[in-house]
Amino acid sequence: MPELPEVETVVRGLRPFLTGRTISRVENRAPAASVVISPTLTGRILEEILPGRTVRAVSRRGKNILIALDGALTLWVHLKMTGRFRLIPADEPVDKHDLVLVDFEPEGNDRPGSEGREGPGNDLQLRFHDYRRFGRLRLYPDDELWDQPGLAELGPEPIEMSGEEFAELCRTRRRMIKPTLLDQTFIVGIGNIYADEALFTSRIHPMRRTNGIARRKLVELHTHLRDLLVRSIELEGTTIINFAGAEGRSGSFQSLLQIYGREGEPCLCCSQPIRRIIVGSRSSHICPRCQRRR
Questions:
Q1: Which end of the chain, N or C, is less surrounded by CB atoms within 10 Å?
Q2: Cβ 158 vs Cβ 54: under 8 Å
Q3: Of residues 184, 193, 176, 177, the one with CA closest to residue 251
């Protein structure tokens, strides 16, 4: 599942193209479970509600993409395992896994950076592609959005908080550190990849209890976690299987991974073989020498 850097990469790819554009047409090929519309929108379908609306902003909250529309509506998207947005030429053949297609009204070349072009991006279409069909698109009025399960209970953003705030938050829990990091109500955007990498860099075993880890060590963990996330965003995320940004580019942070996905390979610090263990029903990659469980 895309984590914070991957979702941020998608948002940064969509924002310059979508902001200020007006939707002209929507084609919804998604199964009913993939598209959720607020009951207060009187049973209307996506193809009726979105055309004619202008995109006000594109932002991220945790692993969620929020596309704000005029008329006080927000299209809330979670990519889940294999969902992705693609900005591609409108005349490109539609793939069977292209579930939602969005066209935009043409615009002139007065847009910043568009000098010398006729209607920048006028030939591009936005497609939501999801071959496993676990992704979700939800449309809600703004005054309902933040009350919805999946958004209402989200924890703080790891990049925006201080190390001391992170340490204090950890001290309120009495559970293993790895499941705590994955808990989106505790802190958002972190999944297996960045949790494993941060714990390894901090030399913390994933089964250590949060209330048993020294405060200075928790501050150190936050520093490594924040640095990993920021660096991954700079490198447009981690592509393990099929992640790509809106413009089709794969991420390159995978070349810097020190422990995730390296089961059986020698630790880069001590040459001990890396092990994969189960922690709280999730896989975790550890170095048994560098990350001793005390």
A1: C
A2: no
A3: 193
Tell me if residue 3 is catalytic: yes
Average pLDDT along the chain, 294 residues, taken 10 residues at a time: 94 96 96 94 89 98 98 97 93 96 82 43 89 95 97 97 96 94 97 97 97 96 98 93 84 94 96 96 95 87
Q: What is the CATH number for 235?
A: 1.10.8.50
Is 282 in the active site? yes
> At 236, is the secondary structure helix, strand, or coil?
coil
How far is Cα of residue 58 from the mean position of the Cα atoms in its chain? 13
Contact 86, 125 (CB under 8 A): no
Give the residue numbers spanning the domain of 11: 4-145
Residues 21, 60, 63, 226: which is the catalytic one? Answer: 63
63 is catalytic: yes
The CATH code of the domain that includes 141 is 3.20.190.10
Structure tokens at 62: 């945790």
